[in-house]
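Example with several molecule types.
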Amino acid sequence: MTQLTDRPAAASPTLQARGGPATARVARARSGRWGRVLFYAAIGFFAVNVAGLVGTVLVDSFATEWFGTWLPPGLTTRWYEYIAADHDMPLLLFNTFFVAAATTLIALLLGFPAAYVLARGTFRGRGLLAALYALPMLVPPLVYGIPLATLLLRLNLGDTLAGVVLINLVPIVPFVILILAPFIEQVDPSLEAASRMLGAGRWQTFRRVVLPLVVPGLLTAGLLAVVRTIAMFELTFLVAEAQSETLVVALYNDAFAAGMRPVQAISALAVVYMLTTMALLGIALFFVKPTQFVVRLKER
Amino acid sequence: MATVPDTRRGLGPGGRIRVDRGALLLSLPALICVGVLFVFPFLFGIDLSLRTGARAAGPWTLANYTQFFGDPDQVNTIWTTFRVALPVTIFSVALSVPLAYVMRHGVKYERLITSLLILPITLGTVMVAQAVLNYFGPVGWVNQVLQALDLVHEPVRFTHNWLGVEIALFLNGFPLVFVMILGYMSGIDPELERASRMLGAGPGQTFWRVLLPVTLPGLAIAFCLSFVANFGVFPSATLVGEPEGPTRVIAIAAYDAAFVQYNPPQGTAIALLMGVIELAVVGVVLWLRARTTRTATIRGGKGA
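Resulting structure tokens for the full complex:
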């Protein structure tokens, strides 16, 4: 492993301040350049393949037919008409958005106060509480999903949106708590103390001091929860049937029964799913930098 | 909402405020949610897995477990799951370390790169599996490129086998592993690295003796989270793999028993076994983490 610096020497005046003889600096910059080349090559390779994956599905969904050639011989939009007739698209889209929105809202309502206690409190059992919240994220969804789905079916909540939302809450509530806690920890506790000392009540302090400062955290947690719920397949799959199916479950069922319908029709449904998720990811990335809260967790 | 800490007691250790008893009640809604939807179904599942019959009403028996362990095909799903989950997890972590090392002080287009990496996570397992089937398939672009470059003469079989599942799992899992390890690596105090260099350690020595030991606890966490996802693999294994044979993982066995053969007690028993095995692996990794963290601290203390 070679020593790698953050930026090319010419572009980084800070490097000079780090000292060392000029020759060492040049050598370091050169080996750093090789590391960077390898890094960008690896990332570029990954990017090309991700683009290829998405591109294949996109092109395929507009292909009249496509077998063994670089590009399909002709283009058509009939597969989108096909899936519109094959699936109840308005219902699928409604279910997808409803489940994502309801799960996220409930998770934020339940998770915010819990995250506040976790972030601010020093009390016996704090570690135990944190472990309890982490546990649902440390076991594969099918482990608790199968008994919970069995229970929901017995309670006649199978194939209902309520059942789908309930089963999705299991991983999302802890997820929201663990994302929110570091954001709340960043709010200086003395601000709250000052607010109380100046005569504000608890509710007023919460509404006028704490809440505005935690809005970025709420947005981050909410948007990540939405994206995660839409992509969360296993749990929804266990409960949902015709009436409560979401896009991802319909896509799985179509893909699993490959041969029942043209490949292009499956690709078309995949594109609809992709666009739905992309739209939400776009919004999410507008507000947050994905690495920033990982680093924040560490630096606190 | 009574969220304000008791100001009379002042600040607790670490900038935290001691909350009064009332404030602890704020945890209640989330606790009830986790209790009703996670803990209770778990207990219900243990009870269910100990019963048999269509109504699952009989007395407690270990029949579901003995049936699982008595069937070599079923027991085999455990090893299949390890064969599927371990290589891709180790590969993702091993690949992330050098990449994060290069990127630890930030690189150009960081936002673009991270967005790009996050893309497959957002697409989800089902979408990635479906795309892998087309893109890596016998007439997909990958095989066309390989043949055009004269690297192979027959299409390479990337899908409907073990390799296909590994590819799909890698695409889904690697980005999160990388972002986590990048977070840990860029969180290391640059002073440590400079001190090591100033005391005469070469770049390699600095990496192996300073940076890696400090990152090791983070690597363990990234490994665990990635392993959890890969051990529970379901859609990738059914869509891109061979769910009847080489990629019949334990999740498929549990699902089939519960919802294809309509035997929820048997399915729950397999699901619980899956959880126990997976948690055992996570437990061992976290135990090793606790041990190495201690030695790493001691070594760091001596060096500094």
